[in-house]
Write a structure and sequence with these properties.
mainly alpha, 15 helices, disordered N terminus
Length: about 260
């Protein structure tokens, strides 16, 4: 009898232990499932950890909570003044708010800490481009590309710079290099389409959109641009076929229905 009881108690103990472990595992997974809880719980455990502050700021940026992002990037830098990624991201936030001098300060600091930080070089170039300081922007993009050869986003921004400088042919060549490096870089495809459209070169748009659709099949922006070019060339039935395809795939987008009736 006693052995049976002890065996039952032992079994019960194993079950209780398993239940407790399962509960703890579930609780831990709920922390991991929700990054907010994970980082906030980490903050309570290690309030002086710069990486935790950085992660909270990064998550806040992704969710559009700029106030929290500013607060926690600044705190990360206070805790670790040589945190180059925090300096860069804080600089990008200032750039988005049009506070270019503060953006320059933090981006330059990121590069001072880590000279081969190619992403910081590119972002510094974007700030200079926004300030219409084309010469400095060009230098920054070139330095980023010296440090990172395969860098489609930087090549794309370099194309934007050439376009802003009024050199459409060099911009087109640079955006072509962007899509060679990243065939799904939709912004580069769209920028090339816009340059051709502004020059009323509809035939080139047909060639370009054919290329783009090989990498981005059924992309509504590319298809819409192709349909518009076909309509401008008088190929209305071909254009209508594409608009019908777009209306079927995106019935709630009113502009496709309107264009179909043009």
């Amino acid at each position: 009898g006693c052995r049976g009881v002890s065996r039952k108690l032992c079994g019960l103990g194993i079950v209780v232990t398993c239940v407790l472990l399962a509960a703890r595992t579930h609780q831990r997974s709920s922390y991991w499932a929700n990054e907010h809880l994970l980082f906030r719980s980490a903050l309570r455990v290690v309030p002086g950890n710069a990486k935790v502050h950085y992660n909270i700021a990064r998550l806040a940026t992704d969710e559009g909570d700029r106030t929290t992002a500013f607060q926690f990037y600044r705190q990360a830098i206070e805790l670790y003044p040589e945190y180059e990624a925090a300096h860069m991201n804080l600089g990008n936030l200032y750039r988005d708010e049009g506070k270019y001098e503060l953006a320059l300060k933090h981006l330059k600091k990121a590069i001072e800490i880590h000279e081969d930080f190619h992403t910081a070089w590119m972002n510094l170039g974007i700030v200079y481009a926004a300030m219409k300081n084309h010469a400095e922007a060009l230098v920054c993009y070139q330095r980023a590309l010296q440090r990172q050869k395969h860098y489609p986003n930087c090549v794309f921004n370099l194309g934007n710079l050439y376009n802003d400088m009024g050199n459409a042919s060099l911009a087109l060549a640079t955006w072509n290099e962007t899509v060679r490096q990243d065939p799904q870089h939709i912004k580069a495809w769209n920028n090339m389409i816009n340059v051709y459209d502004n020059a009323n070169r509809q035939q080139e748009i047909l060639v370009l959109t054919h290329r783009a659709l090989g990498h981005l099949p059924d992309n509504p922006t590319i298809l819409s641009s192709r349909a518009t070019a076909l309509a401008k060339l008088g190929r209305f039935l071909d254009a209508e076929q594409i608009y019908a395809q777009l209306v079927h795939a995106h019935p709630r987008v009113e502009k496709y229905l309107q264009n179909m009736g043009v």
